[in-house]
Amino acid sequence: MTDTTSDMPKGMMARARWAAENTPDNRNRAVDLYRAIAISFVILGHWLLIAPVIRGGELQLTILLAEQTWTQYATWLFQVMPIFFFVGGFSNGLSWNSAQKDPEKARVWASTRLARLLKPTVPLVLFWAVAAFVARQLGVAPDLIAGASQASLVPIWFLAVYIMITITVPVSHMLWQKLGFASVILLALAAVAVDAIAFGLHQGWLRWSNYGFVWLCVHQLGYWWQGSTRPKTFALGFLGFGVVALYVLIAVLGYPISMVSVPGEEVSNTLPPTVAMLTIGTIQIGVVLMLEGPASRWLMRVGPWSKVIVMNQMIMSIYLWHITALIAVVAILMAMGGLGLSMEPGTGAWWALRPVWLAIYVLALIPFVIVFSRFESAGKAKGSGLPGPAQAILGALLTCGGLVMMALKGIGADNFIGVNWIAVILVLVGVYLATRALRPSGNAG
After folding, report:
1. Which of 30, 191, 248, 269 is most exposed by smallest CB count within 10 Å?
2. How far is CA 304 from CA 17, 20, 184, 325, in A?
3. What span, in angstroms and rounded, lies between the C-alpha atoms of 436 and 445?
4. Which portions of the chain are predicted below pLDDT 50?
5. pLDDT tens by residue, 409-429
């Protein structure tokens, strides 16, 4: 077989253009566009709603959702993780279908998918571990280290959930093949039942199971999209049902307005997800299905499609490092005497300057992406060096354990090194196990 990749031009943009020119016409290009848009909206939401300010001589990372409650409606636009799980279901279903035709590809399918997700987390975790250690040696309070690192590591909560959804694909896809759309309905009903019991009978612990039911339901809809011949027919149905259900949940049943956790509020639609998050997802899916045709036609042009390809090649790096870039900007401004940090968040002047701040954040993010995006390409490992499913799943579980610890408490710790070394070790060992075979012969796992 001829290796056509030897003819591929060098350089990221050149490679992307080559890939765009050689993309089959039957590829659903809207999937990649929606993934890029979803991550971009999440990043924009974080950059707008995290408001650093100096009050009483102390730096505070205030959350605008708590101080200006009208901004909570904006989360209906910026909380677009349902779209990411939706397109993830589409891509995972397509990939798993293809892998099942080759026993070796099926054996390493989980580790292949996990490599792209997990390897970019290693430099982020090590960066903040070193930062926490240095800060501790300089006498910075453990609470401040934990707070800053937790803010920067907030994006990994989603990654931990998505990793768990990914490793269940062989089971969830089998469920789809056996039950079809009924599997979506069953998962949605399970999410409704969890909320009803948790809130109605005061069994709040049960809500954590909705991390599975809600996100699996959205992911399962991705399987439906991948196999549907008439997705646009259902678009208005999804949109209409979602709007009515959201109104009932918020206006009648008293669910929170915000689709992001708000400091001081007892109930969150995100942590853990509620049925309200599922209804927002239904609305968003209706919108993206309506726009699929125009988006696909636009992406038949080489220029736009090559840019989408480039964006997707560094999507994890952009997502993982965007709050670190914000923290870096704030740290530099603090070193400059608090330049620009005295303006009260939410005022007219504050909003007027948001475009300037967003531009600064983008500039700060670029170096991180340039340096660390190589770990995404390193995640495209192939061959007998990848572990089988048992080892990959064990590695994924260990990694998620460490990531969840950091997302909830930050990476700082009140010990002599100032670092939660258990969480760091879990991530490092987990990523290694999930992405590298202990027995390179191809029989691992």
Report:
1. 248
2. 10, 9, 33, 27
3. 11
4. 1-6, 442-445
5. 888 877 778 888 999 999 999
Provide the pLDDT for residue 2: 44
Which residues, listed in sequence order, are joined to residue 54 by a DSSP beta bridge?
59
- Give the number of C-alpha atoms closer than 13 A to the C-alpha of residue 309, restricted to the C-beta side: 22
Distance (Å, rounded) from C-alpha 361 to C-alpha 322?
Answer: 8
pLDDT given for residue 440 in this prediction = 58
pLDDT tens-digit series, residues 44-86: 999 998 899 998 888 888 889 988 889 999 999 999 999 999 9
Distance CA 98, CA 90 (A): 13
Pairing verdict, β 58-63 and 50-55? antiparallel
State the CB neighbour count (10 A cutoff) for residue 358: 14
For 12-24, give one letter per residue: b (16+ CB within 10 A) or e: eeebbbbbbeebe
Bond preceding residue 82 cis, omega within 30 of 0: no
Identify the three-state secondary structure at position 318: helix
The pLDDT value given to residue 381: 54
Q: Are 221 and 89 in contact (CB under 8 A)?
A: yes
- Work out the widest C-alpha separation in the chain, in whole angstroms: 69
Which tokens go with 312? 């997707």
What is the 3 state secondary structure string of 149-208? HHHHHCCHHHHHHHHHHHHCHHHHHHHHHHHCHHHHHHHHHHHHHHHHHHHHCCCHHHHH
Q: How far is residue 42's CA from residue 37's CA, in Å, rounded to a whole number?
A: 9
Q: Check residue 444 and give its pLDDT.
A: 42
For residues 41 and 34, the answer to whether their CB atoms sit within 8 Å is: no
Q: What are the beta bridge partners of residue 52?
A: 61
Query: Can you give the residue ranges of every domain in the chain?
Result: 26-435
For residue 39, give the nearest of 92, 86, 88, 84 by alpha carbon: 84
Nearest to 91 by CA among 159, 187, 162: 162
Q: Which amino acid is at 209?
A: S
